[in-house]
Design a protein that fits this description.
eight-stranded mixed beta sheet; globular; three-stranded mixed beta sheet; Alkaline Phosphatase, subunit A; alpha/beta; binds zinc ion
Length: about 375
């Protein structure tokens, strides 16, 4: 009888994702870089912005220096110059969605297309209607980070967020007591601090950015790596911010520098995860952004509901449970709202119990097993 039922199920699902118990992922690292456009990710420095004529639109101070650092006539070479680690190493470890010229589109579903609504969509599996500003208000519902901590029975410090923008202290949780967060010009409390953090605690206050609510990404990355080494978090969220702020300032040179710095942080993180226990072979990295930006020399600095292209984003998933396809082609459309379910699926948790209105996991991010048909 059982055998007969089994056979029927097998026929119904010829190809399916490997069941949770066969998954290798035990640790999930979510990494976002605020407002990196798919244009830069897939094609490197924008030809419309890196010219002497475009100086006013791009705000580049030394066009020759930018050309030396990032330029090639060939888009693939350009993106490898901008993000050498992402394109020469990381992309081969999983799947990169969002290259619209190859028939892979990723969109934000929320109607606002600025930061908090985007991060809320990422962390809750669906847009949150009450989040319609960047105000520092706690999440109105349990985020995927809080849900994972509860479901897996983890300690507070085992689920952590390090972010450059201070509002992440609110975005990631319903209250301070649920998960650990360090965001903006903030020090790690003594109980969790390490000797190596003291240099960043001091420097972040001495070398300030032009913005009161966003510290340098270099400080965030330094603190994050210290924390990971010391506390071995099970789920970790790293959020870069400068990539967006320099674009709003209309400084394309600094925006490119911020993207390159981000690429370097990915290299340091991934290299650590691949070479160190308990992470080696058991960690999945999800890399994405909260929104797109405008498409032309006037509006590339901006985003929001009135900026065409601001809903266009990208997602990369890399790790032991993801097929090694690199840049995806002809995948149709994916959504920012699928990230939460993808994180849960990797850890063997049911996304519908987390949020009945959450979108499904990204199927292409999971190795499919061919079931035997009898
Ligand atoms: Zn943003």
């Amino acid at each position: 009888m059982m055998r007969w039922i089994g056979t029927v199920l097998v026929i119904a699902f010829v190809a399916r994702a490997a069941p949770a118990q066969e998954r290798k992922t035990e640790f999930v690292f979510l990494v976002t870089a605020d407002g990196i456009r798919h244009q830069e990710l897939f094609s490197g420095a924008d030809p419309a912005l890196v010219t002497e004529n475009a100086k006013e639109s791009s705000g580049i101070e030394d066009v020759e220096a930018v050309r030396r650092a990032y330029w090639s006539e060939d888009a693939v070479t350009r993106r490898e110059k901008l993000m050498p680690f992402f394109w020469k190493e990381l992309s081969a470890e999983g799947i990169v969605l969002g290259n619209r010229s190859r028939g892979s589109r990723v969109k934000a579903k929320n109607s606002h297309l600025f930061s908090y609504p985007g991060y809320a969509e990422i962390l809750n599996g669906a847009p949150l209607p009450s989040i319609d500003s960047n105000d520092a208000v706690f999440s109105p519902r349990k985020t995927v980070l809080e849900y994972i901590r509860e479901e897996l029975g983890l300690e507070r410090h085992q689920v952590a967020c390090f972010a450059s923008w201070r509002v992440f202290d609110w975005i990631t949780r319903q209250s301070e007591s649920t998960i650990f967060s360090n965001a903006g010009y903030e020090a790690v409390p003594e109980a969790l601090a390490t000797e190596g953090m003291s240099i960043f605690h001091r420097l972040q206050m001495q070398m300030m950015t032009p913005w009161d609510s966003t510290r340098h990404d270099a400080m965030t990355f330094g603190l994050a790596m210290e924390y990971i080494r010391a506390h071995e978090p099970r789920v970790f969220y790293l959020a870069a911010g400068e990539t967006d702020d320099w674009a709003h300032e209309r400084r394309y040179d600094r925006t490119l520098h911020g993207i390159q710095l981000f690429d370097d942080a990915l290299r340091e993180l991934w290299t650590y995860l691949q070479s160190t226990e308990p992470y080696r072979g058991r960690s999945t990295l999800i890399v994405t952004t909260d929104h797109g930006r405008g498409r032309n020399p006037d509006d590339w600095t901006s985003h929001g509901k009135d900026v065409p292209g601001a809903d266009e984003i990208w997602i990369g998933v890399f790790g032991p449970d993801t097929p090694k396809v690199g840049e995806a082609t002809s995948t149709g459309e994916h959504y920012q709202s699928q990230i939460a379910a993808t994180m849960l699926e990797l850890l063997g948790l049911d996304y519908r119990s987390f949020n009945p209105s959450a979108d499904a996991p990204i199927a292409e991010a999971f190795v499919q097993v061919e079931a035997e048909v009898r």
